[in-house]
């Protein structure tokens, strides 16, 4: 059987989940080229990687190079890292929506975005509201296959220190075992699990476009 060769775009490859996703795609023979769009380098080179440096707040500058089979968006920030709400919105809403518009413009068929549990455009919580508004705006681009992964708290060690998040993660470790049944989706989730699920969804028929944390884990298990 002939090996399928696809091109992927990753937005956020320098982050926790995006970095793991990159490693998965580098080892996946279904992908022959991986385009990275970022403001800084990942620190190593690979024959599959095609890097493009620039300000993701102005993603349209990459229009001529923004062609792929699958686009993976792992962009996201936090209140502690980005306390200015306008800047926060420009990142968590602006970048995925700009990417969706480029996907539509360049006839890219698959767009997979890491969103968040509780995303709701009508939420009174700013973080959840921005994520919900982002999802609705991305859907307006009418990309053929659009998926939002909505994880609970993502575990793992980040490059930057987030003390409040670290403390909450320690608490989550203690309560995860009591979160069962309908509460299972609130358990913390590993970035490796999210990355595996993104790759699986991109390469298999899947009907649900909003994928909550418990379902992310079930999908990821299919790739093991």
CATH architecture: 3-Layer(aba) Sandwich
Measured as a percent range, the helix fraction is 25-40%
How many DSSP helices?
6
The biggest sheet, with number of strands, parallel, antiparallel or mixed sense and barrel status, is: 7 strands, parallel
Tally of DSSP β-strands: 7
- Largest sheet, spatial ordering of strands: 3-2-1-4-5-6-7
Strand content: 15-25%
Q: What Rg, in angstroms, do the CA atoms define? A: 17 Å
What is the succession of H and E elements?
EHEEEHEHEHHEH
Average predicted local confidence, pLDDT: 89
Overall outline:
globular
Tell me the span between the first and last alpha carbons. 22 Å
Structural category: alpha/beta
User: What do we call the CATH homologous superfamily?
Assistant: NAD(P)-binding Rossmann-like Domain
CATH level 1 name: Alpha Beta
Number of domains: 1
Structure summary:
The protein is of the alpha/beta class and 224 residues long.
Commentary on this structure:
There is one protein chain. With 224 residues, this protein is an alpha/beta fold. It has a single domain, classed as NAD(P)-binding Rossmann-like Domain (Rossmann fold), CATH 3.40.50. Helices cover 37% and strands 17% of the residues. It contains 6 helices and 7 strands. Strands 3-2-1-4-5-6-7 form a 7-stranded parallel beta sheet, with helices on both faces. It starts with 5 loop residues before the first strand and ends with a helix.
């Amino acid at each position: 059987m002939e090996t399928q060769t696809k091109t992927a775009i990753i937005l956020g490859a320098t982050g926790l989940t995006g970095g793991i996703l990159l490693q998965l795609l580098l080892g996946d023979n279904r992908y022959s080229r991986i385009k990275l769009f970022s403001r800084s380098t990942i620190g190593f080179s690979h024959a599959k990687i095609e890097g493009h440096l620039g300000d993701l707040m102005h993603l349209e500058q990459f229009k001529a190079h923004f062609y792929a089979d699958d686009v993976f968006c792992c962009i996201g920030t936090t209140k502690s890292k980005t306390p200015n709400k306008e800047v926060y919105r420009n990142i968590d809403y602006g970048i995925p929506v700009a990417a969706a518009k480029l996907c539509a413009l360049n006839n890219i068929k698959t767009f997979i975005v890491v969103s968040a549990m509780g995303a709701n455009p009508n939420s009174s919580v700013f973080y959840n509201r921005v994520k919900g508004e982002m999802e609705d705006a991305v859907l307006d681009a009418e990309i053929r296959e659009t998926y939002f992964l909505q994880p609970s708290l993502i575990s793992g060690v980040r490059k930057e220190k987030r003390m409040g998040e670290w403390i909450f993660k320690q608490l989550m470790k203690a309560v995860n075992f009591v979160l069962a049944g309908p509460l299972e989706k609130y358990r913390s989730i590993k970035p490796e699990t999210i990355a595996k699920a993104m790759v699986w969804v991109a390469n298999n028929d899947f009907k649900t476009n909003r994928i909550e944390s418990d379902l992310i884990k079930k999908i990821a298990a299919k790739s093991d």
